[in-house]
From TrEMBL, chain A:
Coiled coil: none annotated. One of its GO terms (molecular function) is transmembrane transporter activity. InterPro entries: AAA+_ATPase (IPR003593), ABC_transporter-like_ATP-bd (IPR003439), ABC_transpr_LolD-like (IPR015854), MacB-like_ATP-bd (IPR017911), P-loop_NTPase (IPR027417). It comes from Dactylosporangium siamense. Residues 25-256 form the ABC transporter domain. SMART domains: AAA (SM00382). CDD domains: ABC_MJ0796_LolCDE_FtsE. One of its GO terms (cellular component) is plasma membrane. Pfam families: ABC_tran. This is ABC transporter ATP-binding protein. Keywords: ATP-binding, Nucleotide-binding, Transport.
UniProtKB/TrEMBL annotation, chain B:
It is found in: Cell membrane. It comes from Dactylosporangium siamense. GO terms for cellular component: plasma membrane. Belongs to the ABC-4 integral membrane protein family. Residues 253-374, 713-828 form the ABC3 transporter permease C-terminal domain. The keyword Membrane applies. Its main location: membrane. It comes from the Bacteria. This is Membrane protein. It is a multi-pass membrane protein.
Length: 261, 836
């Protein structure tokens, strides 16, 4: 949909276009407070950040920096205390649970660290689950394409119990990709994988951005994983503290060290 | 260890177990409380007849003690007071002029006696009859007929005429012969004049202080039976308890079902709880807990829950006891209701039952918990459940043996002659098959749930498909959950199928044999002479245009070489019309002098074929030999052997009047007109009893419906426990699937869809239990009814409405069970659940 507009010739024009109209997600002054009275925790303390269409962004930060909370708010899983979240032009603040659910179903893809799949469904049924929930028919051609890109052709009839950890994460990626959502949120997608299968999964995410024009936002604490992204956003104590373009794992590590993480 | 067990990790999860215990214990305790109270009340009632009595002489069946007995006993040393008690049949006539009968039996009159302290009754209102024109009536009949003190009542005397008395009192008294028949108290002269009494039924005496009653007993000579007051009281108590013991056995069966269902629910709960707590258990083992300690921990937990549940169950038992006692006092049963007292035995039994039931049910899960290896604490994914291949093979083999054995027993039962034995054998076979069904249910419950979910899945979509998948995930658990429901539904379905089939078959038999509207029978069958409908009544009706068919039946008992049987005859014109039995061989039209129609259903006549000779010996030793002209399916009201009127006259020359008269109303005459006409004709013959077959059918249908309703109400308790079981399984499954639900919610499952998923899961489990239960109940209900009827052509009746109601009830139970768990699941915050 929106990604098709990416075929702009001039890089400067493309950049401008992204800056003005084609932001996948944009947050301003986002505050999230947990608890009351003495136990109050400001998990997010005035976060403002934008995620352009067709970009792979990694959100990093030390434990407790608020990166998971930020992702939950961005994805409509949790509601902020104040501030605004716009996802593909829709303001999430104030939406009902039902509206948020439908929005997630149609416009957001998820890849979690673990427990991504329903154990009772086959790989194919898991991939098609968001379509089933919405009562929509998937595009069979796109399904075949996604499945072959991810190398899952042989595994479609298997249940999650019969798949390796890497395969399970790739099934989750396929599910996220199939509906061509406005944005895919990946929460520590390689956290439970060895480095080689982890690299496979990260490669899938990066290729989806490069080749399919997908927007991906990934939360991670692994500098190597972050190095696959186009940009790293650094979070500490609920605020954006730094940003890194075209990161390498060394650069990310240096930045983390400077932040004292 | 004990502390951890008692505090428990999450005591709230044991609440459903406690509820199952409360209900099962409540039912058992309630029955005990009801039984004790009713026994006490019955004892009180029966004890009236033995109050203050030290010695009692009772006349032998059908005889009376001579009037001189009172003086004879009075002369025995030590006796201070003697009372002769008369009791004779004296039918009461109600306000409409019809006889007051209880199951066809008319009531009695007793005399007021000379000694107030030896009266067998208590005055409730008014006064005791003092003049010959006064009478007192028992309270039960007074309530039924609406007679009050001051009314005029009529009794039919030995002269078959009505005699009027003024009602002066209402009394509490047990019916003569222990029944609920009407009892009227008269002065002795009035009683003698009315009934022609020549002696006493019973003579009772009081002895002086210091005299041993048994000494007096040994010195009394009489033709009757002599007992001490204590012996009399013991015998009366036995008689009293006979009235309720059958009912109590039935109730105890239901209690057993409730306990069984509770055991299933408890075992399932503990299985799930311990599966969820596996890592915790493994951790305990890691830090040094022995297997015995793990075992004791579970057992202690079970005991605590059982004890708590039982304590509450006693309260519930009191409520159930109250309800039962109210129910038993209804006119249909008519038991006296006593004061409810919670004695020590119900409390002890309740506590013991609660604790033992819970521990025994938790035993297998507890043993399984001890097998959790310490290493399980370190594993991320829980171990898959499952008995393994060998366990499954053993299961199938055991089930196959049970099915084969059950089927064999059923076949044997269906071929057994005696209905009672046949029913018992078929039921035993059914129990075997049922056990096999329960054992095998983990294997077929999955496919069944899928099949049930297939159609709704097409329309409702994801929730139903997810629900079916969830229900299949752990077949053992789903099977155990549905089993609890299955038991109740199967029994309900079986009971109602039996009732419907019995009703329809009986109706068919009745219609087949007697397409008539009224039966006239003599109301009184006194000892020596066989009572009959007076010939004048039959003659009068024959000329009455109100009735198009008047068929008189005469029957009596004759002897054959293989035993006694009933021989009868019916007007020739009625053969093929009023008398129309199902013929198995030969032709009814071949009945002529020297031949007979015999029932192949009679034990004495088994194996008789058309053409066989039958030698009958009648009254006064007269003998005739008849040839079998036809065989019919079952004995009818006419008799096991039907012969012509001429042959009957030869066989029983003394017979006068008709044993039975069948009437069919002429077309165009309304039922009310016909009945009015009949009542007019019979006004001068009050001892003729009228059976209105339409009324009779209605009454029987109502009675059968009532039985089905009572069974359903009692089994509903099992259903409630099963409901708790479903809710429990669902709640624990929801807990187990917190992250899964969160994932689904993140991916776009709405709250409504999540609730629908859980509702569908509960409904599918309930439906699976209901489908299997109804199928089983239907098949075995029919087989049992078939066995009960023996040779008679059983007409299968499927009580569609009732069965649908039971399935609906099961579905409702499932839906109710899903309410709380689904609310909890849907309200969980997605983010929190994801992080769980």
């Amino acid at each position: 949909m929106v990604c098709l507009t990416m075929t702009t010739r001039h890089p400067r024009a493309a950049y401008l276009a992204r800056m003005t109209t084609t932001l996948a997600v944009e947050v301003t002054d986002l505050v999230k407070v947990y608890g009351t009275g003495d136990t109050t925790v400001r998990a997010l303390d005035g976060v403002g950040v934008a995620f352009p269409v067709g970009e792979f962004t990694a959100i990093m930060g030390p434990s407790g920096s608020g990166k998971s909370t930020l992702m939950h708010c961005l994805a409509g899983l949790d509601s902020a205390t104040s501030g605004s979240v716009r996802l593909g032009g829709t303001e999430l603040t104030g939406l009902s649970d039902k509206a948020l659910t439908l929005l997630r179903r149609q416009r957001v893809g998820f890849v979690f660290q673990s427990f991504n799949l329903l154990p009772t469904l086959t790989a194919e049924q898991n991939i098609l689950l968001p379509f089933d929930l919405a009562g929509r028919k998937p595009d069979r051609r796109r399904l075949a394409q996604v499945v072959s890109v991810l190398g899952l052709g042989e595994r479609l009839r298997h249940t999650p119990g019969q798949l390796s950890g890497g395969q399970q994460q790739r099934v989750a990626c396929a599910r996220a990709l199939l509906g061509h959502p406005d944005v895919i949120f990946a929460d520590e997608p390689t956290g439970n994988l060895d480095s080689r299968t982890g690299a496979d999964v990260l490669d899938v995410l990066r290729r989806s951005v490069r080749e399919l024009g997908q927007t991906v936002v990934m939360v991670t604490h692994d500098p190597v994983a972050a190095s696959y992204a186009d940009r790293v956003v650094m979070l500490a104590d609920g605020r954006i503290v730094d940003e890194l373009r075209h990161p390498t794992s060394e650069a990310v590590l240096d930045l983390l060290k400077r932040l004292g993480a | 260890m004990r502390r951890t067990a008692l505090v428990g990790p999450r005591p709230r999860r044991l609440v459903p177990t406690a509820i199952a215990v409360v209900l099962a214990v409540g039912f058992v305790a309630g029955i005990m409380i009801f039984g004790a109270a009713t026994r006490a009340a019955l004892l009180d009632e029966y004890a009236r007849a033995a109050r203050n009595v030290d010695v009692a002489l009772t006349a032998a069946e059908g005889t009376r003690l001579p009037l001189s007995t009172v003086d004879d006993v009075g002369r025995v040393g030590g006796v201070t007071a003697v009372e002769g008690r008369m009791a004779e049949q004296a039918p009461l006539v109600d306000r409409q002029g019809r006889l007051v009968t209880e199951f066809g039996a008319p009531g009695h009159a007793v005399d007021v006696g000379d000694h107030p302290e030896l009266r067998p009754f208590d005055l409730r209102t008014g006064q005791v009859p003092q003049a010959d024109g006064e009478a007192a009536l028992d309270a039960r009949t007074a309530r039924r007929t609406g007679f009050r003190v001051g009314d005029t009542v009529a009794l039919v005397g030995a002269d078959e005429q009505r005699h009027e008395f003024r009602l002066v009192g209402i009394v509490d008294i047990t019916g003569v012969d222990g029944g609920n028949t009407s009892t009227v108290v008269l002065t002795r002269p009035a009683l003698v004049r009315l009934t022609g009494a020549t002696g006493y039924r019973e003579v009772v005496a009081v002895v002086a202080d210091g005299t041993v009653p048994s000494d007096v007993v040994s010195r009394v000579t009489t033709t009757g039976k002599v007992r001490t007051g204590d012996q009399l009281r013991r015998d009366l108590a036995r008689e009293a308890f006979g009235q309720i013991d059958g009912l109590l056995v039935g109730l105890q069966l239901f209690a057993a079902v409730a306990v069984l269902v509770a055991a299933l629910v408890i075992a399932n709960t503990f299985n799930i709880l311990l599966a969820q707590r596996m890592r915790e258990t493994a951790l305990l083992r890691c830090v040094g807990a022995t297997r015995a300690q793990v075992f004791r921990r579970v057992v202690a937990e079970a005991a605590a829950v059982g004890f708590a549940g039982a304590t509450l169950g006693i309260g519930v038992g009191l409520a159930i006891g109250f309800g039962l006692s109210r129910g038993a006092a209804l006119p249909g049963i008519g038991l006296p209701s006593g004061r409810l007292v919670v004695g020590v035995p119900p409390v002890l039994v309740a506590l013991l039952l609660g604790v033992v039931l819970t521990i025994v049910s938790a035993l297998v899960p507890a043993v399984r918990a001890t097998r959790v290896p310490p290493i399980a604490a370190l594993r991320v994914t829980p171990l898959g459940g499952g008995g393994g291949r060998r366990g499954r093979v053993v299961l199938v083999v055991v089930a196959a043996v049970l099915v084969l054995g059950g089927a064999a027993l059923t076949m044997v039962g269906l071929r057994t002659g005696d209905p009672q034995t046949a029913m018992a054998i078929v039921m035993a076979g059914g129990s075997c098959v049922f056990l096999a069904v329960l054992l095998l249910s983990p294997l077929f419950i999955g496919p069944l749930v899928s099949a049930l979910g297939w159609l709704p899945g097409l329309f409702v979509g994801v929730p139903v498909r997810l629900a079916a998948a969830n229900a299949r995930r752990n077949p053992g658990r789903t099977a155990a959950t549905t089993a609890a429901l299955l038991v109740g539904v199967a029994l309900m379905a079986g009971g109602s199928t039996i009732a419907a089939t019995v009703n329809r078959t009986a109706e068919a038999q009745l219609n087949l044999a007697f397409p008539v509207d009224y039966l006239l029978t003599p109301a009184v069958t006194s000892g020596d002479r066989t009572a009959t409908v007076p010939p004048s009544v039959t003659a009068g009706l024959r000329t009455d245009p109100t009735f198009e068919l008047v068929a008189a039946v005469r029957h009596d008992t004759a002897k054959t070489s293989s035993g006694a049987l009933r021989v009868g005859t019916i007007d020739e014109a009625a053969i093929g019309t009023a008398y129309r039995p199902a013929v198995t061989a030969g032709r009814l039209a071949d009945l002529r002098p020297g031949t007979a129609v015999v029932s192949s259903g009679s034990d004495v006549l088994v194996g008789r074929r058309v053409g066989d000779q039958l030698r009958l010996t009648g009254g006064g030793g007269r003998t005739i030999t008849v040839t079998v002209a036809a065989t019919v399916q079952s004995a009818t009201l006419v008799g096991d052997v039907v012969i012509t009127g001429a042959d009957f006259g030869t066989l029983f020359p003394a017979a006068a009047g008709d044993s039975l008269v069948m009437l069919r109303t002429a077309t165009g005459v309304s039922a009310v007109t016909a009945r009015d006409r009949l009542d007019t004709v019979l006004a001068t013959h009050p001892l003729v009893q009228v059976d209105d077959l339409a009324e009779f059918r209605d009454a029987r249908n109502a009675a059968i419906d009532q039985i089905v309703a009572v069974i359903a109400v009692l089994l509903a308790l099992a259903l409630i426990i099963a409901l708790v079981g479903i809710a429990n399984t669902l709640a624990l499954s929801v807990l187990e699937r917190t992250r899964e639900s969160a994932l689904l919610r993140a991916l776009g499952l709405t709250r409504g869809q999540l609730r629908a998923t859980l509702l569908a899961e509960a409904l599918l489990m309930a439906a699976a239990g209901a489908v299997v239960g109804v199928t089983f109940g239907l098949v075995y209900g029919w087989l049992t009814a078939d066995a009960a009827f023996g040779d008679v052509d059983t007409k299968v009746a499927i009580p569609v409405g009732q069965l649908a109601a039971f399935v609906g009830l099961a579905a409702l139970a499932g839906a109710l069970a899903a309410v709380l768990p689904s609310r909890r699941a849907a309200n969980a915050a997605v983010v929190v659940a994801l992080a769980d």
